[in-house]
From TrEMBL, chains A, B, C, D:
Its cofactor is Zn(2+). Keywords: Metal-binding, NAD, Oxidoreductase, Zinc. The lineage of its organism: Bacteria, Bacillati, Actinomycetota, Actinomycetes, Micromonosporales. This is Aldehyde dehydrogenase. It comes from Asanoa siamensis. Gene3D superfamilies: Medium-chain alcohol dehydrogenases, catalytic domain (3.90.180.10), NAD(P)-binding Rossmann-like Domain (3.40.50.720). Belongs to the zinc-containing alcohol dehydrogenase family.
Length: 350, 350, 350, 350
């Protein structure tokens, strides 16, 4: 392992909101150099520098055949579609916030990278958040000349903004209230909308002659909360239904869960989200959801990094050695200012 | 006007659940022969037999250019996208349950039909429900070999079943409780699932080796109700989220409204639908919604009728002269057995 | 091996027009029951009944990831994209006109079938010609309501006709001069056009109000010849460019080769085909070419067979035991009347 | 008329290689301000600043409905699909290298622009070459991360390069031999390949690890000629077939004609192009052809100009008053160095 990132979704088990097994290792944003290969591996070689998609997939089931590595039918012993590292519900696979990582079906799962250490902090975004942000723009139908609104300027929202600009969107709005994150959105060429200062709906409608944007990306998830901190899972969805124009598309890459026993309301406990579906229907919106199938995008995004056109590492706020992971989780979980994205790995200095 | 159909959505204003203006004529499923053309018309000629799409569209705005005639930006004086006949909220255009109908932008809106009277009852389905059912299968991603579940065996659901079979689906389930409608589903080559007799989820999961179907079509809408008659707008959506497999598609052509002052709950009044969104997200479903842009499909569906491959008129239960419309509405509104689809027009006999 | 078919492209090496190695076994249309699996196989089990796609693919290279198993970058030691069985230029893999067949990367390549012997003659078409015919319709953009012209009523052309009807085409023309093959086209619901009796261009243009068809499928290939037997590689292409309407699509699944040393003209030797490209450009045609990536279609086509909606075995003319293969090749190579499709396998009787 | 550009295809009739009627006005790249509207016009207003797509289309025929304004079935009295300005074979419509231009079906054809004079030289590219270059990238399947080779650095090739970069291509090669044009390609972010200095095939294959590019754009046309000036219509196509990788896409926006009585060879006179079709088939290439349907792209490209992300005017070499058109044609026809793109209009100074 040369780099393993901490992801916002690591905080779900960290906070006890998702289950975790004692002794399991966290970490699904992984990259490194191959130390050893099993007997069934004939493509990947020892010494290859590789990125590890967070979805662990068999490569031969029906869903993998169709490109949905996010819903592999064989990798998760639970029988649920989809497997991954560092989450009991995604299978028994330990994560990569460690010195080594075992990658099943390595020929299928691993993406080869140029040897060396160049672009390390950019490439490490290929395992999850860069493709996930891109997936949001894909589900939303972003295309050259279109306008886009992204709710949430966390790492995924920022990667969605970067992706939307790379894909030729004519204007990209990013809505959040954290100044440091909004500054990164601006660096990626987006228009920052600070909802602690302005009404985002009004701002976006005004800037689009009252029509709204062509595409919306939800990068917040079920823990969306208002300014008092109260959770309203429908909050970002409602606003997006409001600002996306009739005939538009909505990509939901913020995480929603089928049940959430610790949620505030009975509906939320059951994974129900009472958003403005009637308004969405009237507009004829198309809503794409779910985890990103990383392999669908990581090769092309890698090539954009190599050619100097994509720079996902701008969001890195901290690089730390593995033995400082405990403190890093603590800061990150408290959403402390400036802790946008933490990378762990040997040779990193605090 | 040679034929005008009564549509389930005519019942919304009929029941006072949607607004209606005194003196406005009902009817958005229209066909006839051209009596007269305005000076700006250079394609359509007097004497042409034509089908009138229920969406009234200008043909030159941005949404029309993009094929979204269901969201025309110019035809509705209210400024809302989308216009139509026989509904105050869709603009000031009178409907076609009458002797004559005025069709603006006739060159753009009208679909020409072969002269004569052949296929009259099939062609009359081209103005709304055949394309609308087809649209449901399009939004759901139906393709050759795929499996499909359709909830609701009303006219739109039956047209969705007919469309799914025409498109090469390998198995099509239609879920309803009305025996006569389920019999029609069977005639169209679908597998009828009577939810008053069996658990539809269990039936469909069993028939698909526990995987569920590839595609789901919602043809029920916000007035979905349980067997006691109580409305639960999320009822059909929830069941579809349950039976559509991970990575699948869901087309929602049943009508949902942005507000419904007479609904039973506060959420429903606001057009909110608290369905299992968390489960849908976990499965990575893609959900398409909204009114059908009829012009996207009516020409090809017409050609399938002419070539003898499509037979939408099987669902016609009654053909009546215009002066029996009042009684027809009464029977239809009471959902009397066998009143599946009513056609009105000169020369029709009770 | 339970069934191995003889394919028209087996005749290229048989006639010495493509190279063949002494001792290599012919046969790329294969199905059977698994006798033994290697140590790297964890999905397929001994005893599984399976269909073997003619493209042999690694499942983990870039092209396989993108669904182009027809252009696998790793399976062919020559370095050329694409590998297969029973052809020296497609790699060192022996064919299946034998008792046993070795299938590399079996988990990826094999399609599982229901146990038993039902649908044997239908399923055997899943290895090549049914998907290949379907691929022609996909490249041509066939969709519900469209009109289609297919040139060539050999097995692939007939499978294209069957596919086009399954996909909801409103009218399908099949052009050939062999009465028995045209009769099969009619059985599949197509309109037979016998070019020894009528001018096909005129016939098709007349039947489409002078507009031509939406889609064309070329199922003839570089050995297209006129009624005198003289080869004109551009013959079928030219006619298709003529009958496909402006804005239409053309799928070329007939085989063309980059060089053909025994061809009649210098251009043909170099793989050049001087067809009416200027006319195609003026019409704005889209032309798809190449070998079918079988895995893109075989699962859905299998399901259509199981559900009783697809019947590719109608074209089978002969079923023979393996020891009569020599005579079978002789008859087939002479294009004897009625030798449409030959199946070889144990238990087959002459 | 505020701006009318001279286009390379104006040279076909200028040189007598395409027919021209005495008295007809040249010019199909037009923009201006509306002076007067006819009685059937209800969207466009006097005073609107507008861009005029070079395809003149009715907006209500089947092809226009499907988005193929390049193949309008009603606008050209000859009965051929497609109409335009300033070409007898495209209908009797005079061109815009004049003070005024008549635009039929103005509501459908005209694209509205922001009032004023800002971006005049960028917007004037919206009538033809910017969308045409973009169309080449669309036909070729350009998408984020892909590699692209464009043959021909004339105005259309340069616009294709600009488009490919805007769409997120990871590397774009432009092949030509004119230093000034290659310099513009570099300005747009492409890699210039000067075929008078290097072998373009070798250069591109080397730069892509021997795989070739994902996408190719042909922006040369039937007058492709070698360094001695001899015409070889298949020249650019052959090279593109060579450098586009197996499974790739090829967009041909260079003009090919169905007949060319003055061509050098019998085949060329008939519009036949004997390119390496066998090699293309073996690679499984997809080849899109034909004139650009401008309305499919001009709105989004306009928005990219307004937002400062697209700069098509970089290629403008000369701005002249209308009365210097004769000299301009003379220079342009001689392919004099530096005469890349000429704009004509009132207030322009030599």
């Amino acid at each position: 392992m040369t780099t393993a990132n901490i992801c916002g979704s690591d905080l779900h088990p960290y906070e006890g909101r998702a289950s975790m097994d004692p002794g399991m290792v966290f970490g699904h944003e992984n990259m490194g150099v191959v130390e050893e290969v099993g007997p069934g591996v004939d493509r990947i070689k020892v010494g290859d520098r590789v990125s590890v998609p967070f979805n662990l997939a068999c490569g031969t089931c029906r869903n993998c055949n169709d490109g949905f590595t996010s819903a592999c039918l064989r990798a998760n012993p639970s029988g649920q579609p989809g497997a991954g590292y560092g989450y009991p519900m995604m299978g028994p696979y330990w994560g990569g916030q460690a010195e080594f990582l075992r990658v099943p079906w390595a020929d299928f799962n691993l993406l080869e990278l140029p040897a060396g250490t160049e672009h390390e902090n950019d490439f490490t975004m290929l395992s999850d958040i860069f493709p996930t942000g891109y997936h949001g723009t894909e589900l939303a139908g972003v295309a050259p000349g279109k306008t886009v609104a992204i709710y949430g300027a966390g790492p995924v929202g920022l990667m969605a903004a970067h992706s939307a600009v790379l894909r030729g969107a004519s204007q990209v709005f990013v809505v959040d209230k954290e100044a440091d994150r909004l500054a990164l959105a601006t660096e990626y060429g987006a228009t920052a909308v600070d909802f602690s200062q302005v009404d985002p709906t009004e701002t976006i409608m005004d800037a689009t002659d009252g029509f709204g944007v062509d595409c919306g990306v939800e990068a917040v998830g079920y823990q969306a909360h208002d300014q008092t901190g109260e959770e309203h899972p429908e909050l970002a969805l409602d606003q997006l239904v409001g600002v996306v124009r009739a005939t538009g598309g909505l990509g939901v890459v913020g995480v929603y869960v089928p049940e959430d026993p610790q949620a505030a309301t009975e509906q939320a406990k059951q994974g129900r989200v009472a958003f403005d579906f009637g308004a969405a229907w009237t507009k004829g919106l198309r809503i794409g959801t779910g985890q990103c199938p990383v392999k669908a995008y990581n090769r092309h995004l890698r090539d954009l990094i190599i050619r100097g056109e994509a720079h996902p590492s701008k969001i890195v706020s901290h690089e730390l050695p593995l033995d400082q992971a405990v403190e890093a989780y603590d800061h990150f979980d408290k959403r402390e200012d400036g802790w946008t994205k933490v990378l762990l790995g040997p040779g990193r200095s605090a």
